[in-house]
Specification:
By secondary structure, the protein is α+β, with helices and mostly antiparallel strands. The chain has one domain. The strands form two sheets. The chain has a three-stranded antiparallel beta sheet with strand order 3-5-4, with helices on both faces. Helix 1 packs across helix 3.
Amino acid sequence: MLETPNGEAANVTEDDLRVARQARNESVLRERNEQAEAYNAVVKWVNPPFADWTCECAYENCEDPVRLTISEYEQVRAEPTHFLIAPSVEHVAPAVERVVRREDRYWVVEKIGVAGEVSEDLDPRAQ
């Protein structure tokens, strides 16, 4: 449920609900990547040590792989509103996010507005 700063139920629009659903989907993918991090941390025989992650875009059926080092992943996760996506405009949902970093192997998007609030609320590292 979306709430106002004083804890009351907020009047929400259909757009707000859609954005919240997208943010929840991305947060589920982020949690999957959090669980994969322990495995990825021990697989260091790859040179350079890129690990496999799942694209955290807003599109429910996306499972595109993304390759990052553990350090790069940690840089993304340092901000609860930042998500890693496959490097393509097709993975960006401009209504709820903006690209803040572009690398050859991955992009980082920042959730804005309601999506940013939901992302912060669902950040597994803040719980």
